[in-house]
Amino acid sequence: MPTCRPVLLIVAAADRDAQAYRRWCLQNIAAHYDVALICEKEPTWQRPWITDIEVADPADEEALLAAGRALRRRHTVAGVMTWTEWYLVPTARLARSLSLPTTPPSALRRCRDKAAARAAFARGQVPSAVCVSVSTEAEAREAAQRVGYPVVLKPASLAASMGVTRADTDDELPFAYRHAAQAASRRGVESPRVLVEEYLDGPEISVECVTHKGRTTAVAVTHKTVGMPPHFEELAHVVDANDPLLPRVGPAANAALEALGVTDSVSHVEMRLVDGRPRLIEVNARLAGDMIGHLVQSATGIDLARAAADIACGHTPDLTPTRNRTAAIRMIYPAHSGTLTTREIDTDFAHRADWLERVTFQREPGDRLVLPPDGDMFTARIGFVITTGTTTAEAQARATEGYRNLTIRVAPE
According to the model, what pLDDT value does residue 161 have? Predict the structure, then answer.
């Protein structure tokens, strides 16, 4: 039945993990907007929250434009958005073609190309890392010797730490280069080049930001735990509504977004604190993954998914905090690659622990799990545990306790 609510087009991937990590986004947005979805497959889990669908490959810009125009013929469309990293530029072009609000596609291309982003940071005097773009192992070795070990090698246009590897010596460089180059050669990746970057030694954080009509508000800080060296798998995150870092790192995130030309977006701005000072890693001009937006809402009450929808429709988002606590997530990884045979939580514990916000399994018994370097988060993760607390230490301790009450069994290969 038709409603009086605005219609929002969402361009999204239909990959296996979307239900686990993006369902909260769709639920929150559908509470305020009628959602028309464009994705490459017929929807399944999305059905309760969408009003219309066009099946098209968003990586095919002509197909995406045709799908958007078809939906516009059926609806009065108020905005277009995506939370999928690979579709940022095509979605912005679709919004432009429909005369709807968006960050300029040129700015999003800079966000997607990490070398271009580093150049923009340099022009804007935003502290980041020394970076050299290469296309051969010999060029990578020369760049690493010039930058100085340790270095980080990464694909120029990927996300989720895929292909990112640290090399501490000349002997470690060939593996790091091959790993990054293989990831950079994936279908649909805009640039096949590899970056050799200065290793930023310090705690890793992200700043979750909302930019509307060129004005940015830094909403929250996410503290990250990364591991599985020499790779950088993201293992855990925590968001504290009272984080004292926010006033200190917010200006650096704002400067990065301004340097890139981001005008209308919810953004996930990654940085490391080197000697206590922020140094930029990259800007993802979309809602953060790994349930970080949900952690922000759980800790502060600020709904970043709705904020992204509001911005896409040209509305000023409400960023008023209504909660004052901490939320943490712990990712569930196997100890080794193999076939998952058991994954469960102790039900008595789960019923007693009112601070255990959720346990989500994204893999089923019988699924094959592959850790880096042969796999990545999409092949290795089993699920996640989310907990809340009054402080960062309490929320993290509870996440660890929740993790200890899991039973995970993997038959080795």
Answer: 76
- Per-residue pLDDT band for 1 (boundaries 50, 70, 90) equals very low
* Cα–Cα dist 352/80, whole Å: 42
pLDDT digit string, tens, across residues 67-122:
999 999 999 999 999 999 999 999 999 999 999 999 999 999 999 999 999 999 99
Does 321 sit behind a cis peptide bond, omega within 30 degrees of 0 on the bond before it? no
Q: Give the Cα separation of 104 and 264 in Å (integer).
A: 9
Q: What is the DSSP letter of 162?
A: T
Among candidate residues 338, 114, 377, the one with its CA nearest the CA of residue 233: 377
Distance of CA 388 to the CA centre of its chain: 21
- Beta strands 34-39 and 52-55: pairing type? parallel
Contact indicator for 202, 275 with CB cutoff of 8 Å: yes
* Residue type at position 144: A
Confidence of residue 2 (pLDDT cuts 50, 70, 90): low
With vertex at residue 179, the alpha carbon angle to CA 174 and CA 185, rounded to the nearest 5 degrees, is 120
CATH of 327-413, one of 3.10.20.30, 3.40.50.720, 3.30.470.20, 3.30.450.40: 3.30.470.20
Superfamily of domain 130-198: ATP-grasp fold, A domain (3.30.1490.20)
Which has the closest alpha carbon to 162: 234, 263, 257? 234
Write out pLDDT tens, residues 276-285: 999 999 999 9
Q: CA 319, CA 336: separation in Å to the nearest integer?
A: 42
Q: What is the DSSP letter of 407?
A: E
**Per-domain residue ranges of the chain:** 7-100, 130-198, 200-324, 327-413
Instruction: Give CA–CA dist 184/51, Å, rounded.
Output: 36
Beta-carbon contacts of residue 287 (< 8 Å; ≥ 6 apart): 25, 83, 266, 268, 293, 304, 305, 308
Q: Kindly report the length of the chain.
A: 413
Grouping H, G, I as helix, E, B as strand and the rest as coil, residue 52 is: strand
